[in-house]
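All the exercises in this workshop are built on plain-text protein records. An example says more than a description, so a record of this kind follows:
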Amino acid sequence: MVPGGDGPATGPTVLRMLLGAQLRRLREGAGVTREGAGWEIRSSESKISRMELGRVGFKERDVADLLTLYGVAAADERTALLKLARDANSPGWWHRYGDVLPAWFQSYLGLEAAAALIRTYEVQFAPGLLQTPEYARAVILLGHRGATPAEIDRRVSLRVERQELLRRTRPPQLWAVVDEAALRRPIGGPEVMRAQLDALVEATASPHVRLQIVPFDAGGHAAAGGAFTILRFGDQDLPDIVYIEQLTSAIYLDKREDLDYYALAMERLCVEAAPPERTPELLRRIADELYPR
C-alpha cells in the first residue's frame, strides 16, 4: 500500500516524509546504497538522505529513475508513487503567508497540520492553538514592535487560521501543559487576559483538548530548560518529532535518544502538573484573582 491520501491531515510536509520513507524501504529492499542511488539520479548520497527524510522536494524524473533502480515495475505502484511526488510538491495553505512567515516555521506548520497528537509545554504564553485573536495580537506585538499594522494583521490571521485544525472533522489530540506564570503574565491588559483565560476554560470542554497547569508550588520541574512540542503522526512509518523554537530559528529532533529524553520530561511534567479535571477551577481562580469582572 502506498502511503498518502486525501484525508484532512494530509499536507505536503507529511507527504514528503511518507514518500521518503517508502523510497528508503524500496532502496534497502533492493540492496542499493545511498551512494549508488545518488549516482543514479546524478546527485549525492546526502541528497538521497535528505529525500528519504522528507526534507527536500522531489523531482518526478528522480523518483521515476529511483523506482526503476529499485526494481519497481508494476504500473499501478509507480503511478501512485509518482502522484505522491507531485502532491508532495504542492504548497500548503500557509504558503500565502510567505511574506510574514520564516522558512523554519513553515516546516513546523506542515508537521503540525499532519500530526495526530500534539503535546506541548508552554512557559511564557498560552498555547498558540488556543490563543484568542486579541491575545495573539498582543503576543505578536512583543516581537514585532516595528511592524506595520497591516503586517500585524497578517500575522494574527495566520495564527487564527492555524487553529482551524482543531475544528476539522478528525482533529488531532492536543495535550498542553502550561506553567502557571504564563497565565499570570498580563499580556495585552486585563480584558484581553480575562478573555484568554475564559477561552482556555472553554477549550477544556473539548474532547480532543487536554490542558494541565504546572502550579507555582510544584517548585522546580523536569522541563526547566524551556518550552517544547512533541508531534506524533498517525502513520507508523513516521517518527515522533520534537520541536524547539528559538528567537530566529528552530530545532527539529527525531533521533531516538532525543525523543526518549523529551518524552520522559513531558511525562514527568504531566505528573507534576495539576490533573486535567482541576484545570477549569484553577483558570477561574487566576482570572478572579487578577482580572475580576
